[in-house]
Amino acid sequence: MARRRDLLKGLVTLPLAGGIAGHALAMPEQARDFERDYFKELGVRTFINAAGTYTALTASLPHPEVIKAINYAALQFVKLEELQDRVGERIAELLKCEAAMVTSGAASAITLGTAAVLTGGDPQKVERIPNDLTGMKSEVIIQKSHRVGYDHAIRNCGIKLIEVETKGEMEAAINAQTAMMWFYNNNNPVGKIRDEEFVAIGRRYGVPTFNDCAADVPPVENLWKYTKMGFDLVCFSGGKGLRGPQSAGLLLGKKDLISAARKNAPPNGNSIGRGMKVNKEEVLGMLVALEIYLAKDHQQDWALWEKQVKLINDAAVSVPGVKTEMHVPEIANHVPSIRIRWDAGKIQATPDEVRNQLRNGHPSIETVGGAESVDMTTWMMIPGEERIVAKRLKEVLSAAVKK
Ligand SMILES: *Cc1c(COP(=O)(O)O)cnc(C)c1O
């Protein structure tokens, strides 16, 4: 830990790196020793991630210590159930909740959590979902403003989503068929029913509540905030801000529900979760990633990201006609970010064209944004890469300045 931190500090003070020195930095420590360059052999291009934790861009790089844990686990057999038991206990202790399990991403945590409330872990019910819900509840209540593509993971269990807007509508919607109430943490500010009130309604009517916090660290406190608030189930992605294995996730919550969720998952073959296997390497890697995340100096991370974003900002605004906005999204991806726009009368390139030029340059740089802007974050960069990004951005924008 200390070593890595010192390394980061050292890199930050480097002068603006030229192409070659910069590219060496782009190779993560853990990938440098390999004899074969597999991605190159395949013709798959690697890039500097100025976008953030996007699944399509493989989201995050695991900490070197996580890779060590994965390599350790790969060399010996254990019983999967026993490993999940022990890792779950340890995670619950670290995150101050009743119980926990490692899932195959936050998306599988949503399906397994839903399956847990439907079946209660009853083996016959576990076998029957999603196409025979006889003897099970069949509705999940969701605020209209909390609908998001990820709620497909709830529907995987064969239930019907009931959309409501107000507290009154929610209370009227609760009936004998109500299995669960689902909450999308990022949309807390836009829903008519806020988190604490949502939990209180669930409690009053005896309906379990689930909060999807997949992309909601930092801040680190969110890892226990919502179970403490009273949500019965909470999930996080393992491979976003936590920088664990990309396909791992966390399901946290009540002991009986976590136990029931486990019955719906491997090694149980006749279950909805059988295709959501988490191998021993990732179960262990997830725990180690959490340990590292909890022990790290979050303020130092934040200061580094702010400095990196500022560097990119200064390079961008040095080009006439460019306007930037440095901002921090309120809940999901709550990290220093930058939005870059320009006066179309002064710079002759669309944001798409600039994104493509960054992508097709050397090294390749991936960014996000829409028709109006190029958007970036630096938290998924290898420290030092921000200098290459700043330099390339300035080059691309400058070249498009109208003469
Ligand atoms: C990313 C995300 C998910 C899915 O997480 P995975 O770990 O990739 O399965 C679910 N819900 C929300 C809100 C997310 O942002």
UniProtKB/TrEMBL annotation:
SUPFAM superfamilies: PLP-dependent transferases. The keyword Signal applies. One of its GO terms (molecular function) is L-seryl-tRNA(Sec) selenium transferase activity. Residues 1-26 form the signal peptide. The modification N6-(pyridoxal phosphate)lysine is found at K240. The keyword Chloroplast does not apply. It holds the Pfam family SelA. Its cofactor is pyridoxal 5'-phosphate. It comes from the Bacteria. Gene3D superfamilies: Type I PLP-dependent aspartate aminotransferase-like (Major domain). Keywords: Aminotransferase, Pyridoxal phosphate, Signal, Transferase. Belongs to the SelA family. This is Aminotransferase class V-fold PLP-dependent enzyme. It comes from Chryseosolibacter histidini.
